[in-house]
Amino acid sequence: MQFGPAIALSAGACLTALFAVGVAQTSADDIAVKLQAQSRQAIAQAGARGVTADFFTAGGWPTRHPVLLGNGKLNESTRAHAAKAVAAIPGVGSVHWADATGFGTAAVPPPKPLHCQRDVEALLRARTIRFEEGSAAIDPASRELVGEVAEALRPCLGSVIAITGHTDSSGNEPGNLTLSRERAEAVQRALIRRGIPADGLRAIGVGSSKPVPGLDPTDPANRRIEFSVIETVPLKPTPVDQPGPR
């Protein structure tokens, strides 16, 4: 069977896109494996025998934010020393103990929006990520915009990015909630394909409960995706967890 030029070009484009995604994933995996190897040496130098640093999420995605596991018999000073040693490795983000509760009992300043949230909001003021009617499938015309959003979010990697789906008030609210969440998840998957780490994305659906201020709840303009970029760990005094209850 012979294929026409258009089909051949389409097939080539698909193969190129798949290859690009594969290369990006392989590169990220390689970086995580390299950081994992460097962390073993740092942990050994810190005297924390039996501790490992996991640079992959539960879903198998590479991450710069490792979880430290193992050896619950270590004293708190050694645990803190090991976590700081891993955090000092270039390219490592925040470090957490699997059995710690977080940053001790000290009050943590409320999270503040980062500049990339403003950049994304500026993109979405003029354009909207659109979906096929009654569906969570992103409209092909919006794929370029999703790519621009990914680029705008890239400077804020290491923070949690909340993706919130909204609908208008037409239809029943349980269905609106489901559709808004599915649309947020569709954008989440699209951002992951464009290199945004999965462990920093959260998809949320709120249905029609939060219409645009000043708009009638039934207005189609309420069908939208919003992004909230927040800092999840304070930068001072340290980028690692304080020892917590075990």
Task: Jot down its keywords.
disordered C terminus, 246 residues, 2 domains, 3-stranded mixed beta sheet, alpha/beta, single chain, 5 helices
The first-to-last residue Cα distance is 65 Å
What would the principal axes of the Cα set say about the shape? elongated
What would you call the structural class? alpha/beta
The major sheet is characterized as: 3 strands, mixed
Helix content percent band: 25-40%
What is CATH's topology name of the largest domain? 60s Ribosomal Protein L30, Chain: A
**CATH class category name of the largest domain:** Alpha Beta
Please state roughly what percent of the residues sit in beta strands, choosing from under 5%, 5-15%, 15-25%, 25-35%, 35-45% or over 45%.
Answer: 5-15%
- In angstroms, what is the radius of gyration? 22 Å
What is the CATH superfamily classification of the largest domain?
A: OmpA-like domain
Sketch the topology as an H/E string, one letter per element: HEEHEHHEHEE
Main sheet strand line-up:
1-2-3
* Individual helix count: 5
Question: How would you describe what is shown here?
Answer:
It is a single chain. The chain is elongated, with a radius of gyration of 22 Å. Strand 2, helix 2 and strand 3 form a beta-alpha-beta unit. It folds into two domains: 93 residues, no CATH class; 116 residues, OmpA-like domain (60s Ribosomal Protein L30, Chain: A, 2-Layer Sandwich). Helix 1 packs antiparallel against helix 2 and helix 3 runs antiparallel to helix 4. By secondary structure, it is an alpha/beta fold. Strands 1-2-3 form a three-stranded mixed sheet, covered by helices on one side. It has a three-stranded mixed sheet with strand order 5-4-6.
